[in-house]
Design goal:
This protein has 19 helices and 32 strands. It comes from Nocardioides panaciterrulae.
Length: 818
């Protein structure tokens, strides 16, 4: 029998192509055209907040090699104008509206009247090459009337100036959720603490920035668009609507994507509309490739939040009431709605029972780059708040930090567990499965938690400061509404699989092939997977929120089952046996116990077509044309020709993965440098499809989390200028800053919500890192400065040094105790 591939560490089939430099990214797209490809460049605002008084493009029009220049007014020409469609002049879509988002605002493809952040697109130039386009952009003259910039949460809350005149107090949204009466429960609790906790704004830095290439075929009335996106079908729909095309006139192809991490889930970006518009107007292929500075100032950021926590608890550290208020900086516009703060407000609870819970947030406008989800999407902030609270309770009571967590865990026999809140998908926040006590036991053994105090004392005697920290989290994964899949068995016996979501390095071609090979009984090498091509799968949602394996994996599994049902039915008819007597091994359908009575899948595929070629058994060559059995209808009512299966998976709600991380760090007594000595992870994503790929996701997530905890931040001045918009100034961890070995253990509590029992894993590594490092650094410093507290992340050596100075002067911020 063929070995089952589910759960096996199958080597990624993608790796050799990428490692040999054979990846094909958007900038590598070469479209055959006698005329060649034109290149676009964008004029971006140098000011964070200003009215546009006048735009003068006269110096550009006669530049050799320039084909067109557009400003907002060119997008709103009369009906029938070759430069415009009615909707191109309207704001970009608000992708995820929410009743609490009372003042949602989105930008225009090109700025109309006003700019609201440095980097906002104002004019679009198309030329023979990028050099000419860039030179032409520099010749455009814009007259501005400067306005006061609103930068940072504190300034936005003060509301002395407004980002948008029609948004009172800069508040785009305010949302409150309650479970019980948290203030009353806290007031009655034996102990109370208050904490103020901050995480600063950061951003993902994929190897490949945004890019778009478009070709218009005037003869066919058809647009082809290649774009580096996490939602090819979303881009397709937006482009069709904005350009006044039928959906069937637009093909969107997502080639290799050099990293997404959330920034490429936003759609459409202005360039994803302007490039195809230009291609259609000019009758030429047009390309735009974002440079690195553009990525810093005109893509998307995340993370920036300020939190105030009030918690009541008993002598054991058991939560009796939790009240959290926080403020979220969503930048100048809200194209992605309230997803990030909603996730923070709900996923903050992690694996715990909070007693009564009240959470309130305000989402605020600032004159900075927009916010979209960044790997973890609000969960790192929520985990940081909850785990810092747990550490504060343990410190207050003088108890072990693991004991305080354990007493608050949801127990294995309490699943499904309803937290009483509404999650990001509008469904109940109901955890489907897990075993948090078992995860904690594994983590303590993995990191050596009980033995650490002796190790700490030993190193302290040598003048070294080491500390240990841990953090627990729960992650909602596999959010809907759906994903689909198509499985086609070719007459060669090969299997072609298509799913609409995109891939950005997650190993989809490997794990999805594993699922199909298992279900169909074919060789892994005979399965080919295509993602992100609307020609192959026109309906999909996208790759984000750790949903690919749960959503597309389940859809592919179901589609393969449909194809298998057809295989067995056709083969049973041909071999004159019962379907139950058949098996499929290595692509051959045979009668159990009678291997000579067999058909390969290629032959079954031929037989699936009622108007088919018959095959000579010796040569397998076509010998005659046949219409099949004249006594039967060519295609029965409940069947269709072809050996293929198509299905969609739509879950009733999200499935919840979980995990726990721990780290041991050393802080230098003189320089305050922070060194990671050990890092351990216990992770539960249900059944594992490919443990090697899951561990790779965890490794990458931890590395990204280290960056967010110790290095990466966006530094704005008071005028809204981003001061570190280059790799010279924006710090990221090198391989030297990431542990050589990340110790990983798995727990598998299958989800009952999908046919594979799986949960998502893509964001697991990054979620708890800020909380882990804050705790470990605090523990190291507390050896020489009892009461030392960390309340803001990320933390650099210089900031740690300053905290030491303030701590020695008695001014380190601590939770208020009562």
């Amino acid at each position: 029998m063929t070995t089952k591939l589910m759960g096996q560490p199958v080597q990624r089939v993608e790796d050799q192509r990428f490692l040999r430099g054979r990846g094909r990214y958007v900038d590598d797209v070469a479209v055959d055209s006698e005329a060649g490809t034109l290149h676009a460049a964008v004029l971006r605002s140098p000011h964070a907040h200003a009215r546009i008084v006048d735009i003068d493009v006269s110096d550009v029009l006669d530049v050799a090699g320039v084909h067109a220049v557009w400003t907002y007014d060119d997008l709103t020409g009369p009906l029938g104008s070759p430069l415009a469609t009615p909707l191109m002049g309207e704001p970009l879509p608000l992708l995820i509206p929410h009743p609490a988002l009372t003042h949602g605002r989105t930008q225009y493809a090109l700025a109309k009247d006003e700019v609201n952040y440095v980097g906002e697109a104002i004019a679009f130039v198309v030329a023979e090459d990028r050099y000419v386009a860039e030179d032409a952009v520099s010749r455009i003259r814009v007259e501005y009337d400067l306005l006061p910039a609103v930068v940072g949460i504190e300034t936005a809350r003060a509301a002395r100036n407004l980002v948008h005149d029609d948004v009172p107090g800069n508040v785009g949204a305010r949302l409150e959720q309650n479970v019980g009466d948290a203030p009353a429960a806290i007031a009655k609790a034996p102990h109370r603490l208050e904490l103020d906790l901050t995480i600063e704004r950061s951003a993902c830095m994929p190897m490949e920035g945004r890019g778009t290439v478009a070709r218009w075929d005037a003869d066919l009335g058809r647009l082809q668009l290649w774009t580096s996106t996490q939602s090819s079908t979303g881009v397709r729909a937006a482009v069709a609507v904005k350009l006044g095309l039928d959906l069937g006139q637009v093909d969107v192809i997502t080639p290799d994507v050099g990293g997404g991490f959330g920034v490429k889930i936003n759609h459409p970006w202005p360039e994803e509309l302007l490039v195809p518009m230009a291609a259609r107007v000019l009758g030429r292929t047009v390309k735009f490739t974002e440079d690195r500075r553009e990525h810093f100032i005109s893509s998307a950021h995340e993370r920036g939040q300020v939190h105030h926590v009030t918690v009541g608890f008993d002598d054991d550290g058991r939560l009796l009431g939790l009240d959290v208020e926080f403020w979220h900086d969503h930048g100048a516009y809200t194209p992605y709605g309230l997803i990030v703060p909603i996730i923070t407000s709900t996923q903050l609870l992690g694996p715990y029972k909070p007693g009564a819970y009240r959470v309130t947030f305000e989402s605020l406008y600032t004159n900075t780059v927009i916010v979209t989800p960044y790997r973890g999407a609000g969960r790192p902030q929520g985990c940081y708040v909850m785990e810092r609270t747990m550490d504060a309770i343990a410190a207050y009571l003088g108890r072990d930090r693991t004991e305080v967590r354990a007493v608050n865990f949801i127990q294995p026999d309490e699943f499904p567990y309803d937290q009483g809140l509404i999650f990001q998908d509008g469904r109940e926040l109901e955890y489907d499965s897990g075993d948090y006590p078992a995860s904690l036991v594994k983590l303590k053994e993995l990191i050596g938690w009980d033995d650490f105090p002796a190790y700490q004392r030993e190193l302290a005697a040598q003048g070294r400061r080491v500390g240990i920290g841990l953090a627990c989290y729960v992650e909602g994964t596999g959010v809907g509404p759906y994903e689909g899949a198509h499985v086609h068995i070719e007459t060669t016996g090969k299997v072609k699989v298509a799913t609409g979501l995109t891939t950005q390095g997650q190993g989809h071609a490997t794990v999805f092939a594993q699922l199909v090979a298992d279900e169909l009984g074919v060789r892994f090498e005979d399965v080919e997977v295509v993602t992100g091509d609307t020609r192959r799968m026109p309906y999909a949602v996208g790759t984000f929120a750790s949903r690919a394996a749960v959503m597309s994996g389940s859809a592919i599994h179901l589609a393969a089952k449909r194809a298998k049902e057809k295989v067995l039915k056709i083969a049973a008819d041909a071999l004159e046996v019962d379907e139950q007597d058949l098996q499929i091994v290595d692509g051959v359908v045979s009668v159990k116990g009678s291997p000579d009575a067999a058909l390969d899948l290629g032959t079954v595929s031929v037989l699936s077509n009622p108007l088919r070629y018959a095959f000579d058994e010796a040569s397998k060559a076509a010998t005659q044309f046949s219409v099949g059995d004249p006594g039967k209808p060519p295609v029965p009512e409940d069947e269709e020709p072809g050996l293929e299966g198509r299905d969609f998976y739509s879950p009733e709600r999200a499935t919840f993965a979980s995990g726990m991380h721990a780290a041991i760090v050393e802080t230098d007594p003189l320089t305050a440098e922070i060194t990671i000595l050990r890092y351990a992870v216990v992770h539960d994503c249900g059944h594992l499809i490919n443990p090697m790929i899951v561990e790779g996701q965890i490794h990458g997530g931890v590395a990204q989390g280290i960056g967010g905890a110790l290095y990466e931040r966006m530094v704005y001045d008071e005028s809204g200028q981003l001061l570190n918009a280059s790799f010279m100034d924006f710090l990221m961890p090198y391989v030297t800053e990431v542990p050589d070995s990340i110790e990983i253990d798995h727990l598998e509590t299958p989800s009952p919500l999908n046919p594979l029992g799986i949960k998502g894993a893509g964001e697991a590594g990054v979620i708890p890192t800020s909380a882990v490092f804050a705790a470990a650094i605090e523990d190291a410093e507390a050896q020489s400065a009892p009461g030392f507290t960390i309340t803001a992340m990320p933390i650099s050596p210089s900031e740690l040094f300053e905290l030491r100075q303030r701590s020695s002067a008695g001014s380190t911020p601590e939770g208020t105790r009562s």
